[in-house]
Amino acid sequence: MSGTSDGAGAVTATPAAGVRIPEEPPHGLGVSLPSTDAAAKTEGTFPYAADLWAEGLLWAAVLRSPHPRARILSIDTKHAVEMPGVRVIVTHEDVPGDAAHGRGTTDRPVFAKDEVRHHGEPIAAVAADHPDTARLAAAAIAVEYEVLDAVTDPQLAFEAEPLHPDGNLIRHIPLRFGDADAMGEVMVEGLYRIGRQDPAPIGAEAGLAVPRPDGGVEIYTASTDPHTDRDLAAASFGLAPEQVKVVVTGVPGATADREDPGVSLALGLLALRTGCPVKLAATREESFLTHAHRHPTLLRYRHHADADGKLVKVEAQILMDAGAYADTSADALAAAVSFSCGPYVVPHAVVDGWAVRTNNPPSGHVRGEGAMQVCAAYEGQMDKLAARLGLEPDEIRLRNVMATGDLLPTGQTVTCPAPVAELLRAVKEAPLPELPKDAPEAEWLLPGGPEGAGEPGAVRRGVGYGLGMVHMLGAEGTDEVSTATVKVSGSVATVICAAVETGSGFSTLARQIVQETLGVQEVHIAPVDTDQPPAGPACHGRHTWVSGGAVERAAKMVRTQLLQPLAHKFGMSTELLQINDGKITSYDGVLSTTVAEALDGKELWATAQCRPHPSEPLDESGQGDAFVGIAFCAIRCVADVDIELGTIRVVEMTVAQDVGRVLNPRQLRARIEAGVTQGLGAALMENLRTARGQVRHPDLTGYALPTALDAPDIRIVKLVEERDVVAPFGAKPASAVPVVTSPAAVASAVRAATGRPIGRLPIRPQAAVAQTVQQ
């Protein structure tokens, strides 16, 4: 695995001779400060939402639709409500406020009323004195359905009858850039399909709702966007926002919207109706059926280039399956269309993107949404162009990569650092792994593992490349703002910020910011709830930038309050004073005191906001400055493929990434490695399968995830620390862009090994059988 960043930004597992590894200061930015909850999570003592308890607790269960599409003729709760131990049953008739909710578009009912639109849609919820009683009562609710033909092919959604009152088309983006009639001397076409990836969180959805004496309710759950969830809940309950409080419990990690809001809504309604605390812990099957998945996507591409391999025009059609409801599909489509040409200079582009409703499981925000799907397609096209022109895959990419100052096909100038060529050269020039020896003791290195059915002579090694890009923060005019408060008393500082720690490392970063700014080593991060000012959702690297920026500004304001009296006393400006290791000293050594002595028993505090420069919506031609910033990544994949069986073993992933600034080396490496592994899952195994809208095997047995045994060697050979001047600390998001890039790199390596086109992810074994074998 990777090691520590040197002065040039390179990261290696073992320092080469003569390479100087700088010593880290004891705390502050740039230090591998460990996470405060790391030990508790690894030891199994970390308190998750499923561990919550309250006096007089009731248990909840939800009745869900067994059909992907059906008309509800009647709902009979009579026998269920008469069961001993059942307190209350709620349906759509019991929702006092808004009957619909949704993160992006409020089009999803709290409980289905007239029609169910996807397998697993909630119809009713039960509160009982025992979890088994609640589940039995939910099963006893009699629902009469008229089963309807489900629309599960997004291509048929355009002509199908409306599946929702708002219609089937969620958004269409027709991007036009340059001359639509331009032609190249060489043209290649491709059809690509990306499967439905599930975020598969470590813990299934869970929560606890507690009624309040004022008629409101408190909801304890692992929300990643508590203020949005509070507002949705208040609207559904018919309450004012201040009457609903969302308290964020321990989040085991999130690569998507962590909790289905429907869980909180059902819990809150039951608590308000019973006057008792109500808890729900979803089964893994329920988790698979209800939360958002990555958008399955169909992509058709046509690339035009001149005889030297320089791109002339890209034509693309992108069709995203949103499932039954819109959620954040409009945002995912904007990212897909905007990045449809990749990190390449493309003079002309004609791209159409659509997001449509179907009766498939819901799609929504998953790390790298939109960008991952198009990356797999445009990188497949670059491999085809290289083969057509007789060029090496890396060479054709180098001839076309963008740099700072180039234009996206949306017309936006890339003003942030864009060292794409440097990243590609770094992975290309890194030494290749050794070939496995043809010996029995090394058979585990072959695809299929020990005792595999394949023969060493059928294994071919392929080397492939992927270049990816993601946007930072929200897009198209999203008001990105976060608020933070920093308090210092004695030798202890406290940070109050509603930024949820989802595994991104924000809590650790906030501690490091305060340590560096104020010289206070003991820094506490307050628990998150909606009594605090909003900090926004935990996605797109927001909290590193926006919430980290707010913490930095608040800490600097406290620093000024701390230093001003001393500066005034000694007749100097605060700029001539510095804080290190809890000590305040002047430039000339005249002043030397501790932070605690300077405080003299007082508590200092400050609140600050961070709001980046605004973006704008795409216009009717797909043009506009829609993004605040962009991050880039290059990955070289080395894969061994059994060309007779189609089994694949990824040997090594070599990564070079544009990070802006390394704030925590160990944490950064972990996030990159995790992102690469998540992308590997999308490339080779993860696909939530459906049959006519019915989810098949919604469990961790039927849905394959990469484990430590599947993870390849991940070598981070370069971290480019060219700071983005508009970002606090100059840092860029770390984990999304390797997720976007690694599936494309794996597919490229399998193409190189087999000669097959590889247009579907995850890659099926039959697709990896070499052409010569098939013939």
Automatic annotation (TrEMBL):
Domain Aldehyde oxidase/xanthine dehydrogenase a/b hammerhead span(s) in chain numbering: 43-149
Domain of life where this protein originates: Bacteria
Chain positions covered by the region annotation Disordered: 1-35
Bias (Low complexity): 7-19
Protein name: Oxidoreductase
Source organism of this protein record: Streptomyces kronopolitis
Lineage, opening ranks: Bacteria, Bacillati, Actinomycetota, Actinomycetes, Kitasatosporales
